[in-house]
Design a protein that fits this description.
- The structure is a single chain.
- This protein is mainly α.
- It has 4 helices and no strands.
- Belongs to the CTL (choline transporter-like) family.
């Protein structure tokens, strides 16, 4: 989503600039700038995504390593993951109960 937004912003700004400079090539300049903007935003986001993934992998392999590195960050990430797991488990429980209710309805009202 961010990649598309970055491309649209870049393409729109370049298209407006091209409209004032040369009105004949607005589509070509705007679409080229949009593609270039999408590529550059995508490259920037890949770096951030890989950094976040590596922190999660380090936490999964040895949580105490992050605790020695930065205790405050360790507490924040532990709390966030605990909240996330509680949310996922409550969602799973809700889905299981919903499926049981569907099975009970099918048993009581055969089709």
């Amino acid at each position: 989503m961010s990649i598309i937004l970055g491309g649209l912003i870049t393409g729109t700004c370049s298209g407006i600039w091209a409209w004032y400079k040369t009105s004949g090539s607005v589509i070509m300049i705007g679409s080229t700038a949009m593609l270039m903007g999408m590529i550059l935003v995508g490259l920037a986001l890949v770096v951030v995504e890989s950094a976040v993934t590596s922190i999660y992998v380090c936490y999964a392999e040895d949580p105490l390593l992050i605790n020695r590195w930065d205790p405050e960050f360790f507490n924040q990430i532990s709390e966030f993951l605990h909240q996330r797991l509680q949310h996922r488990s409550s969602r799973a429980r809700e889905m299981m109960n919903h499926n049981r209710f569907d099975v009970q309805l099918q048993d009581s009202f055969p089709i």
